[in-house]
Design a protein that fits this description.
39% of the residues lie in helices and 20% in strands. The protein has helices at residues 3-16, 63-80, 98-109; strands at 26-31, 36-42, 47-53, 87-89.
């Protein structure tokens, strides 16, 4: 395997090892070069409750504003499903930039993590 891929998988495993999976739903983040994907996963049942992405976000805004709005929309959808607390799973990504903007938007929307 590629050394960069091995390092990325190791970081993600270390991040996920810090919290107890299954105790609360998990807000998982995936970042590509162009878009950001976020989904809330129920690890007890092994299903994705819902997912959102910036690909369908409104144009005319900066990418950071789109991502913050995505976090707020995610929190609103979670509230409709009766979720108040989630575990923020940033995977192998640093808590910086787009990942941080998503987390701040979700917190502004009312999610607790």
């Amino acid at each position: 395997m590629n050394k960069k891929l091995i390092s990325k998988l190791r970081r993600a495993k270390r991040t996920r090892g810090r919290f107890a999976l299954g105790s609360k739903p998990r807000l998982s983040v995936h970042r590509s070069n162009k878009y950001l994907y976020a989904q809330i996963i129920d690890d007890n049942k092994g299903i994705t409750l819902f997912a959102l992405k910036t690909q369908k976000a409104s144009s005319g805004q900066t990418p950071m504003d789109q991502i913050k709005k995505l976090g707020t929309q995610l929190a609103q959808k979670a509230a409709k499903k009766g979720l108040k607390e989630v575990i923020f799973d940033r995977g192998s990504y640093k808590y910086h930039g787009r990942v941080k903007a998503l987390a701040e938007g979700a917190r502004e929307g009312g999610l607790i993590f």
